Amino acid sequence: MSNIKITLPDGTIREYPKGTTSIQIAQSISEGLMRNVLAAKVNGEIWDANRPIENDANVQLLTWKDTEGKNTFWHSSAHLLAEAIESIYPKTKFGIGPAIETGFYYDIELPEGKMLSQDDFIEIEKKMLELARTKSEYIRKSVSKNDAISYFTEKGDNYKLELLEGLEDGKITFYTQGNFTDLCRGPHIPNTGFIKAVKIMNLAGAYWRGDVTRKQLTRLYAVTFPQDKELKEYLVLLEEAKKRDHRKLGKELELFTFSEKVGAGLPLWLPKGTLLRERLEQFLRKAQVKAGYLPVITPHIGSKKLYITSGHWEKYGKDSFQPIHTPEEGEEFMLKPMNCPHHCEIYASKPRSYKELPLRLAEFGTVYRYEQSGELHGLTRVRGFTQDDAHIFCRPDQVKDEFGKVIDLVLLVFKSLGFEDYTAQISLRDPENKTKYFGEDEDWEKAESAIVEIAKEKGLRTVTELGESAFYGPKLDFMVKDALGRKWQLGTVQLDYQLPDRFKLEYVGSDNKQHRPVMIHRAPFGSLERFIAVLTEHCAGNFPLWLAPDQIAVLPVSEKYHEYAKSIHTILEEADIRGFLDERDEKIQRKIRDAEVKKIPFMLIVGEKEEESNTISVREHGQGDKGASSLEDFIKMFQEKIKIH
Amino acid sequence: MSNIKITLPDGTIREYPKGTTSIQIAQSISEGLMRNVLAAKVNGEIWDANRPIENDANVQLLTWKDTEGKNTFWHSSAHLLAEAIESIYPKTKFGIGPAIETGFYYDIELPEGKMLSQDDFIEIEKKMLELARTKSEYIRKSVSKNDAISYFTEKGDNYKLELLEGLEDGKITFYTQGNFTDLCRGPHIPNTGFIKAVKIMNLAGAYWRGDVTRKQLTRLYAVTFPQDKELKEYLVLLEEAKKRDHRKLGKELELFTFSEKVGAGLPLWLPKGTLLRERLEQFLRKAQVKAGYLPVITPHIGSKKLYITSGHWEKYGKDSFQPIHTPEEGEEFMLKPMNCPHHCEIYASKPRSYKELPLRLAEFGTVYRYEQSGELHGLTRVRGFTQDDAHIFCRPDQVKDEFGKVIDLVLLVFKSLGFEDYTAQISLRDPENKTKYFGEDEDWEKAESAIVEIAKEKGLRTVTELGESAFYGPKLDFMVKDALGRKWQLGTVQLDYQLPDRFKLEYVGSDNKQHRPVMIHRAPFGSLERFIAVLTEHCAGNFPLWLAPDQIAVLPVSEKYHEYAKSIHTILEEADIRGFLDERDEKIQRKIRDAEVKKIPFMLIVGEKEEESNTISVREHGQGDKGASSLEDFIKMFQEKIKIH
User: What's this model's pTM, rounded to 2 decimal places?
Assistant: First the structure.
């Protein structure tokens, strides 16, 4: 028997007998690794870990830490769920059961007359764990289309038969674990024993194949883990996430609202939300002035011609908000989906010299993009949002420097808003397929190495993805981890060779000849809507002091002290400290509780003692009493705290 | 012969013989008045001053100072122009010759082969003055349709024949002065002798009846005056207006631009214009915070449902930018033409108590309104503009107080921007026709007297117009006179009973019952685009110091002093004084000239002497050298100058 060569991700090459499985490869490295291997990426394709490898191959072993490993685990768990259902409710018919972002689901049709409820979840979970403990292997088997049809005809599962109709004979596989066999392409984890913790989350109705004219099936959502501890942590996280949900906090803190008459996905910013948003804008505006940006304002519509020039019409026109016609003149305008074409027109509004570059045009530009109403979600998925957009028009030799400055700005934003855990993804060309990219080879090489270098110089933690760049240029995306460990893509920096070409942008070089500038798109926040949503969840509504809608609340103990309280409030207002005076006819305990619910950073309580000694009693949100203070000292302490902004 | 009673505008009643003319009435008052009477308003209708009055009537004598008097004068001048043309170019055919805002025109078809040019203007002007000096009376004569047709058939004037087609027999009049007879409803001035100064301004092509398929006539624009001095002043003003044209200055000062690809009437704000605009916004924003306004932000589109509710769809839908469709879901959105419906939805987003009122929601809201492309003009007539909008939701008993506060804000704006000459127009219901207005009679009466009272209390110079209110409420419009004496409508305050009703807005009163709030729409600037256009022309681009895009320019005499100049510039920047450092390799005279052209308020020149003595040489725009100063003193002086903002 001949050997095959296996290349591992770190580049080491090992020899194994032909027909070795990924599990065996893992075992040859360590027993611990073997116990954790869920599947393997073999020459870029995901395989069962127990599938024999017959030829030389690149192999990446997949564990729970890899997205593909997790997906395989959850897909296998869906089969386990089906097995449990079938064992409890024989004659159940099965639709599809994929892995999703947070677990998996299975669409099922229960036997006539049977309805599931939340009360049944425990029994199903118990059965799943019982079956898991049998450590049944997931066994892959190729079947002919005829045999497959016979099997499901006999079983009486018309959904699987319908799925079979679309499959090609010779490419059909079954997977069996324990007593359950499913039509499935795979891959799967080695055996059910890997599944140690199970939780059915929810049930919902779901039309077969998403078609409202077809039967409504029962969709069971569930999640599983390789360790019980992880499930517990997940449930705690989920509970915490619910509390921090920006839609809930947005309502409680009166940041924003939606209106059916205005339209789905179109937020209405309430006063407190508006002030918060304006402060974020003001913060970035100041930083941008320092960094040499020039502000511009452009309209929210543009002639269709603009988007034909930019290429957006051809690429996205059909799936966008449709053109706006004028009543008489037959003109067509589009809601702007991005600000760059407008900024290109500003660049083109007069001749430019190399001395003017880099020209950094910044706009808090509200753009509109069509999303299906079912896809909308709070402020994270909307139809109108405001980008903290800027376009840097520069010479090719300025790219590295400009990228570096943008990185500084992004990091300033993260630091100021308390995001400490972030990585940067460098997306480069697919080196195997250079022809599909726009722009000169030489420029790409320079730009890519510039980005890689500058990211290194700035000490960023990076991952590099080949083939993930846009076709018009390489990019750098910032992913932050929030307080719950969830990852969000926020800021982005993109290089663009294409738009300057489409808009025929030029500058006169030092050689007195016309040259084409390079364009950098960048948005440190990404979008204000999304950023504020993420920030709200990250800090659970306890915004950094400088950003908090109300920074203080002055709470008089009774009406007798309103006069004194008012004088305190006025002095604070004059010191640019925001907040309110609670003159309601309520007990002080109630006023404190209400201020705590509103997450007001500082409560200033004033009564007889305070008035007499000309002081205030300071209470900090979530930290309780801080004792008496002169107003002067409080203001000094306060200003110290918000100093960096 | 019996007498008739003539009631004059001041209420006095005089008796005259039946058949007295307005000229005779004027003569009975004073000879001077007689010489100035151009026409008269008799029972609301404008009459020839020499037309006999047969019954009791209200009579207002019209002179050059009245818009209607001026229009009559110019319309008569059009006849004089026609007479002159006919005398110089016999066989000319005549279209129409109306008065317009700045004079009058006549559309003519010259005899075959004859073309007019600017060179012919002097001859025509000379002929007009010659004919004017004959003091020919304008003689009115009723003619039958048949006689009228005969007259123009004989004359061979097919345009007048076409106009006759649309006229009813028995209502046709001719006017004759000297040798020229025109088909005309009148009225006219007594005789041509009133016309003392004449200027042909321009010629252009104009299709007969605005129909591009008809013949193109020659349109002659002209202007006339009752005194030569007035023409001279007018021409100076015109020259000055050209220099101050905001479209010209906007380009020179790089405030804004337009792009054919973005679309007509959609301004792109360049960096300097954006900064200026942002400062105006910031100024008002601060004033509004003090005045208790709460900022909100709403999207630039809204579902069609919103505008069906508000009534805008029914009223303006057909003439607006047409609805935006979504690709799949068949939804319809409109570009928002105003912010009020969105603000109503914010009001309605939670239950309101009388304690919360007045609720003042403010937004710098960009709205889009369709205008025909031919009607667009710089920033004064655009398709997208930003209102400094706010809506005050208040109880009926708060209307007067709120109106007063809005007046204060408008006056603060005028004062801060150097508009010293303004009047306020109070527009009330037509008392004869109360049924056509929306809302309770009692509320109207209260609101109207509240507005009249508060305007008086605030010492406003007002004119009151009955029947000029909107159907949904009374209003107060501010008209400013600019440095050239031109009037512009800027700020507006409007009461609205209708929208709260259409949106079913409510608040719980102190009686614990539901009540409907009143709504006040207000915009002190009106629109930022229009305001900046008017301001630019008013101050000829020499913006108030606090608003100037660049406040200073640091001008080093040569490269040797760049280092010192840079240190000066840095200190100024830190003191929030805006400007630039001119490091070009140019002579100092050139740098000064360029800074003067850019209307930079202060030029700070630094050379050997200044560096040695650690000073700057200050030059003020348009005022020349101000001598040496320490930087400290300059900053102090500067900050003093901008103190109120």
Answer: 0.83
